[in-house]
Amino acid sequence: MARADPLDGEFSLYRQVETILRDQIVDGALRPGDRLPAEEALRAEYGVSRGTLRQALDALERDGLVERTRGRGTFVSSGTARHVDRARLGLDAMIAEAGRAVRLMRSGSAVPPPVVTAALRLRTGEEAPFFIRLSGEGKGGRIGVKRYLAPALTDRLADLAEAADFDAMLAGFGKPARAEAWVEAILAEPRFAMQLKVPLGSALLSLWWVDALDGAPAACTQMIRPGASAALGLGTGKETA
């Protein structure tokens, strides 16, 4: 692993690679049936030995996230959806925590992950405005909030990113409603570990929700905070918030 990479630290190399690949599967960047890059390509990308990479793939296989076939390669398991299925449920009290994230870290425009593309009804490859905010060290640790906005709100990005009350500001543009919310347990991959000041690979709670204006999706938000115990026993029941 390259020494300038934030993956360095007390966390073993194979667990670091496992965490990155697991996060790609959970985020939907790798979908059921997708073939992972060849082992040589993965070794070159992460700068690890054959043994280290195979330890990471072994761990993912034990958890049922990938299937390895001799002569064909490694594929995301067709049953992965059961592992990362997002439980839709009412989370208003937890969502309210987003108001603690007051420090604006970054804003701009980017192609969002597949889950956001679907939630905002974007075309594949279409960019959306976004901003990232962090809280300080509060009860329960830091939280990070990343909001993607519908392209129609691009001109309002600065106002919404700086708003003391995002919900109130959004409501000024139309009739608001919460379309859905869901929660998942994830591992702290490098960017989250650095932002939230938690150990690489530690459990995090990832909350997502979609806000609508006048019946159309307006914002898709992900809030990350330490501690995933609340998500681990939720099962896969689905309901709108």
Descriptive account of the structure:
The chain has ten helices and nine strands. It is α+β, with helices and mostly antiparallel strands. It folds into two domains: 72 residues, Arc Repressor Mutant, subunit A; 146 residues, Chorismate lyase (3-Layer(aba) Sandwich). It has a seven-stranded antiparallel β-sheet with strand order 3-7-8-9-6-5-4. The chain has a two-stranded antiparallel sheet with strand order 1-2. Helix 1 packs across helix 3. The N terminus and C terminus are likely disordered.
Fill in the keyword field for this structure.
disordered C terminus, 10 helices, seven-stranded antiparallel sheet, Arc Repressor Mutant, subunit A, 2 domains, single chain, 241 residues, Chorismate lyase, disordered N terminus, alpha+beta
Helix/strand layout:
Layout: H1 13-27, H2 39-46, H3 50-62, E1 66-69, E2 73-76, H4 80-84, E3 87-88, H5 92-95, E4 103-110, H6 114-119, E5 128-134, E6 144-149, H7 157-162, H8 166-171, E7 176-187, H9 190-196, E8 203-213, E9 216-226, H10 229-232
Antiparallel strand pairs: 1-2, 3-7, 4-5, 5-6, 6-9, 7-8, 8-9
Short description:
The chain is α+β, with helices and mostly antiparallel strands.
